[in-house]
Structures are given as structure tokens and as C-alpha cells.
Write a structure and sequence with these properties.
Number of helices: 18
Order of helices and strands: HHHHHHHHHHHHHHHHHH
Distance between the termini: 47 Å
Strand content: under 5%
Radius of gyration: 22 Å
Largest sheet: none
Length: 422
């Protein structure tokens, strides 16, 4: 995209389009702080997220495979870093604020539990009588309440635009009439989001800025690419099984034409990298088209739009959906993966019951103040504690409290790259 006369630079940053989110015009932080002489507000947010305890714990939180099943499979941390790289690439191409896009990519999975979606599903069911559990709402709780590192405030005291993007990266939560959008109509918007919104209005009926939209698509792209990579290397499905997804079949045909007789491990990597390239190039082209049609004079015009401005084209949106359907059927619902998930579900349920029944089993800082607390408050504290656990910590906690602990080990034989001969 060509730079227009409205493009601006601040404090040595790369070019920023007029419709990008400008850190110099931030709506600020809930608790005012002195301006940094060396970093923009979004750079400070990125740094605070990276230095948070919740971010470090992503290293030992499941993506699909439990972390000890192989050194080469993704964890929440490696997934997050891949999302960050893609988000920055999209932001740079579209003239958005790269630091905000990166901060949102780095924070988008902070609320995920141990054992991936199994942990979230288990906690959501266990918390059904107390508002449920949602990883996006949990991420907001972490950055506004649960991180306790700074002298002047709980949480990370992030800028308004970062919090807005964290909460609304998948689109508005409310309709213009003030009702929950279809995504939230059945269960309602999580209480944590509504409670925070009451003190710091995140404008829930509008789209988030373009950087949040870019980070959301980066998440989809990373999932599609690395779950195909991990699933193939784990032997859950074969390259030939991908023929049923035309988008993937075309890429494999292209690889075969360019590199006949390529060894399988290299072909898997070529597939993964070309999937990323196709999606990134499509998002840049489609988003450029939408931006030119909207002709936004400022980021406010993107927030007020009737649809997302950063988007896949219709053709690639269907390709994304087709890949996700394939992965759901052949990877996430694979008997071996489901067997481990069932064992992980037992661990989460056992821990929740033990801590809810006897909060004294939790560390002192987690049980403090619960002596006369009601059932709902205790349950939420327990959910916060379990959600913050890594896979490793949850297993060790279970072993400490119970005579036997389910075995989560399943070690697929990874299809590694053969060593070159001398």
C-alpha cells in the first residue's frame, strides 16, 4: 500500500497510516502514569505483557499436545510467538501500529488454562452456576486484576486501546441496540467483561481498531498452519488425506511440481509456510480493498464501520473454514488426543473439587480472605488459581492431593528431518 500524505511518524517508529491507532492519541490508562521518554504507550504495554507471570506460564501450557509429548510440538508460548510474527507482518504492510498489534498478539492467550481447550471446557462446566469460564474474559482479569507486580496498581494498567483490542478482537460484543451479539446471545457476555466495562467503557458495540483485527486473523493463520504441521508430524493424518481440502491440495500440487520427490518432512514444512504466505497475502489484498472503499480518515472510522476492515477474502475465508473442519475431525477429535483430554479433564475436576471443598489446600495468597466467603466467590478464586496453572503444575498439584493421578503421556513418533549423510 502506498504511503499517503496523511501518514505520520512518531518517536522513530515506522510509517503509520492515518487510519492506524496512534499511541500519541491514546485514551490513556485507568490509572494515570507519567509518559515514558523512550517508549510509546503501546510499546510499554507490549513490554509489560512479556514480563508478566502469565506470559511466562504459556511455555508449559498445552496447545494441542501436552508439552512433554515431544520437543517440536507447539505450546501456547510458541503459538503466541507465531501469532505475533504474523500480526506484525500484517500491521507493517497495512500501515498499522506494529507495537499495538504485537501487544495484542502476545496477550490474546493469557487467559487459557492448563491442558488447552480441555481445561477451559472443564472449568466452564464446573463454573456453570457461577457465570462460567471464558478464556478471553480471563485474560482481561489477568491484565486488570490478577497480575500483582506493580506498586501503584493491580494488573498491568494497560492502555485503553490494548484492553479494547483484547476484549473485542473477534468483533463487537453488543449490537447497536445494546443486546449481546449472536456469539454471546445464548450465554451472555462474561461478568468480568461487564464489570470492567462499567468502570472503563470499552465501547462494546463497535469494532476494535485495525490492529486488533489483524491480530485476530494472525491467530487463525497460525492455527491453520501449525496445527497442520503438528498433526502431520504426529502421524494423526497423512498428506494424502489433505486432498479433500482443495486449498491444501492445490498447494501440495504446486510443491510437487516445483520439487519432485521431495522428502516428506520437507514437504510438510513447505506446506505450512505456503499456507501462511497465501493467507497473509490474501489479508493484505482484501484489507487494502476494504480500506480504499471505506476511505477512513482516522481509526474512529474503522471502529464505526459495519464490518471488519482487516479480513480474509470470501474465497480464503472458506479455505480457512475448510481447514478448521478438517482439523476438528482428524486432529482435535482424534481418539489418541481425546484419550489424553479425558484424563486431563479428570485432573481439572478433581482439583476444582478439592480446592472448593477445602480452600486451605491452596497456597496462602490464594486462600487469603476466603474464610467467610460465599460459594460463588470461592469458586471464582479456585477457577483463577487452576486457570493459571501450567500443565506440569496441575499434574504435580494433583499428585500432592490424590493417591493416583491420570497418566497424560502419549508420545507420537515425530516425523523429524533426516540427518544429512556424510
Amino acid at each position: 500500500m502506498a504511503h499517503s500524505g496523511g501518514d505520520v511518524r512518531h518517536r522513530g517508529e515506522r510509517w503509520r497510516a492515518r487510519y492506524a491507532t496512534d499511541p500519541a492519541a491514546t485514551r490513556g490508562r485507568l490509572i494515570p502514569e507519567a509518559i515514558s521518554p523512550t517508549r510509546s504507550d503501546f510499546q510499554r504495554d507490549r513490554d509489560r505483557i512479556i514480563h508478566s507471570a502469565a506470559f511466562r506460564r504459556l511455555k508449559h501450557k498445552t496447545q494441542v499436545f501436552v508439552h512433554h509429548e515431544g520437543d517440536h510440538y507447539r505450546t501456547r508460548l510458541t503459538h503466541t510467538l507465531e501469532v505475533s510474527q504474523i500480526a506484525r507482518a500484517l500491521a507493517r504492510a497495512l500501515g498499522l501500529d506494529e507495537d499495538l498489534a504485537e501487544a495484542l498478539a502476545l496477550s490474546h492467550d493469557l487467559g487459557h488454562t492448563c491442558f488447552g481447550h480441555t481445561g477451559e471446557d472443564a472449568l466452564d462446566a464446573l463454573m456453570a452456576a457461577h457465570g462460567g469460564f471464558d478464556h478471553n474474559a480471563q485474560a482481561l482479569r489477568i491484565v486488570t486484576r490478577l497480575e500483582r507486580r506493580y506498586a501503584g496498581f493491580d494488573g498491568l494498567n494497560l492502555a485503553w486501546e490494548t484492553l479494547e483490542g483484547l476484549v473485542k478482537h473477534n468483533g463487537p460484543l453488543l449490537t447497536k441496540e445494546g443486546d449481546p451479539t449472536p456469539r454471546w446471545a445464548a450465554r451472555g457476555i462474561p461478568a468480568a467483561i461487564l464489570e470492567y466495562n462499567a468502570q472503563n467503557d470499552l465501547d462494546l458495540a463497535r469494532f476494535a481498531g485495525p490492529e486488533a483485527q489483524a491480530a485476530a486473523l494472525a491467530d487463525d493463520i497460525a492455527y491453520d498452519s501449525h496445527d497442520l504441521d503438528d498433526g502431520l508430524r504426529a502421524g494423526l493424518f497423512e498428506l494424502s488425506d489433505l486432498d479433500g481440502v482443495p486449498f491444501l491440495r492445490d498447494i501440495l500440487d504446486e510443491i510437487d511440481a516445483l520439487h519432485p520427490n521431495l522428502e516428506e518432512s520437507r514437504k510438510i514444512h513447505e506446506l505450512a509456510r505456503r499456507v501462511i504466505t497465501r493467507f497473509v497475502e490474501d489479508v493484505i489484498a482484501e484489507s487494502t480493498r476494504r480500506i480504499e472503499a471505506l476511505a477512513p480518515a482516522a481509526v474512529a472510522d474503522i471502529r464505526a464501520a459495519d464490518e471488519a476492515v482487516v479480513s480474509f477474502s470470501p474465497a480464503l475465508e472458506e479455505a480457512d473454514a475448510a481447514i478448521k473442519r478438517f482439523l476438528y475431525a482428524r486432529m482435535y477429535r482424534h481418539p489418541s488426543v481425546l484419550a489424553v483430554r479425558a484424563q486431563a479433564d479428570i485432573i481439572v475436576a478433581d482439583l476444582f473439587d478439592a480446592f472448593s471443598t477445602n480452600p486451605a489446600c491452596m497456597p496462602e495468597e490464594w486462600r487469603a480472605g476466603l474464610e467467610a466467603a460465599g460459594e460463588g466467590r470461592i469458586a471464582r478464586r479456585v477457577a483463577d488459581y487452576i486457570a493459571g496453572m501450567t500443565d506440569t503444575y496441575a499434574v504435580l498439584a494433583h499428585k500432592r492431593l490424590f493417591p493416583t493421578t491420570p497418566d497424560l503421556h502419549w508420545s507420537p513418533e515425530s516425523r523429524g528431518l533426516p540427518l544429512a549423510e556424510d
